[in-house]
Amino acid sequence: MKVGVIAGGISSEREVSLRSGQAVFNALKELGFNVVFIDAGNDLCEKIKEEKIDVAFLVLHGGWGENGGIQGMLEVMGIPYTGSDVLASAIAMDKEVTKKVFIYHNIPVPPFKVIHKRDYLTSNFNLESIGFPCVVKPAHEGSSVGVNIVKDEKQLNEALNNAFSYGNRVIVEKYIEGKEIHIGVLENRALGGVEVRPKKGFYSYEAKYTKGMTDYILPPEIDDNLYEKLKELGLKAHQALGCKGATRVDMIVDYAGNAYVLEVNTIPGMTETSLLPKIASLAGYDFKTLVKEILELALKDEK
């Protein structure tokens, strides 16, 4: 069996994806698999045909790697792949649709508004119901790309301009002050969670991928009952979107103990600073065991 680790891509998260992919490739190599590394570009289909892979291990972050596009191509080619299927990937990548699905399933989300570029350009929008501080983010990016915490009207236009540079829809969300907790899910089991404490106050792209810029608390320093509730909520969010394989569910818990789900990452980072491997270690998975389990789920799961 030949495994193709597909990483890189053309999104804003390309460099992180390459690092994740290299870590997965090394783990599979050490486990004795026949494995090849494929840097995903516009010629991806040709590369896959050339390599004659039997299964794809997807480590693409953002863009068409995480939005269902590559998954659809692999299905047409008859090649099984790790992680969520086309529909779940597309839903999870779209923050607006994700929130609407969560609301339908009674999964708490922060109050939010969706702004379309045409309304922004004509000033045909109103954020009074959200107020300040708020969080401005593109509807279709990951890894905190284009995300800004806005404290007043003066910062709002700059944040909106930045977010709109990534697409035609922007989410403006009420800022919830509290603890940032991430729950790792593997198929139908919540593995545990990690609390992240960025040293600069915001879990930005830089804080996520630069060593020493964030403290990781494993397990989170919260009440045991609340921790169990968060794990249940994480699994519920994973299932509500129809996700498969390994995901990471991002949440904020305010100081009154109310939890809000922000998003589900269908292809979590697999670098040395990534959260899913840290969380999996709580459940007894070292990195190689986690990688092997993700691959095996793809092989036994008929999408």
TrEMBL record:
NCBIfam families: D_ala_D_alaTIGR, PRK01372.1, PRK01966.1-4. It is an enzyme of class 6 (ligase). It comes from the Bacteria. Its main location: cytoplasm. Pathway: Cell wall biogenesis; peptidoglycan biosynthesis. GO terms for biological process: cell wall organization; peptidoglycan biosynthetic process; regulation of cell shape. SUPFAM superfamilies: Glutathione synthetase ATP-binding domain-like, PreATP-grasp domain. GO terms for molecular function: ATP binding; D-alanine-D-alanine ligase activity; metal ion binding. Residues 99-296 form the ATP-grasp domain. Pfam families: Dala_Dala_lig_C, Dala_Dala_lig_N. Cell wall formation. The lineage of its organism: Bacteria, Pseudomonadati, Nitrospirota, Thermodesulfovibrionia, Thermodesulfovibrionales. Its EC number is 6.3.2.4. Keywords: ATP-binding, Cell shape, Cell wall biogenesis/degradation, Cytoplasm, Ligase, Magnesium, Manganese, Metal-binding, Nucleotide-binding, Peptidoglycan synthesis. The active site is at 13, 143, 274. Mg(2+) 1 binds at residues 250, 263. This is D-alanine--D-alanine ligase. GO terms for cellular component: cytoplasm. InterPro entries: ATP-grasp, ATP_grasp_subdomain_1, D-Ala_lig_Van_CS, D_ala_D_ala, Dala_Dala_lig_C, Dala_Dala_lig_N, PreATP-grasp_dom_sf. It is found in: Cytoplasm. Binds 2 magnesium or manganese ions per subunit. SMART domains: GARS_A.
